[in-house]
Amino acid sequence: MRALGTFFKIIGVVATLLALLGLGAVLMAGNIIHIQDQPQKADAILVLGGSVHRAGHAAKLYRDGYAPLVYVSRIVTDPDAKILNSIDIPIPPEHEITRRLLNKGGVPDEAIRYYGEELVSTAAEAETFAQVFPDARRIILVTSPYHVFRSRLIFRQAMPDKEILAIAAPNDPFPEQWWTDKNAAQKVVMETIKLAWYAVGGRF
Length: 204
Description:
This protein is an alpha/beta fold. The protein contains seven helices and five strands; from the N terminus they run αβαβααβαβαβα. The protein has a single domain (44-199), classed as 3-Layer(aba) Sandwich (Rossmann fold), CATH 3.40.50.620.
């Protein structure tokens, strides 16, 4: 019985250490995932799928003359949108919503390009875009603060001969003390998991 008690104590210590390591990884990730690049003149601006906040900042970068083209990915259709569309409650696909937001921000249709179909991950966006614009030298990614580090990493690995600049949409909220905000904390935890999964060969 004493040996069994010692065994459970060891298990408890190991579990506590693993939990502390996990917490440390999340805290460290939260401090680095939103570090962004400074915008520079580029061949194109990419609006990554996943948030309506991104299009507005992409439009501003276009108006400021950072790139002549804005690329929009066609990501996988949201399951809820599919259900609503099936009962004649039409929901525009995200790339169409992004186009409208870009238009409102001053980007004309002739400067907008689409790529991909039903792209399911940032990795899929990167791999597809690498084939769409092989002559590009510098690309600006516009994404959310919590997504900056991973998107830069993935695109640089998919396009090693290109310069990739990742910029966060400033209107996409991400408080400095992110652990005090439920939504931000959930995103940091998910990004940490996705980064770990990507490091071992997985793709989200």
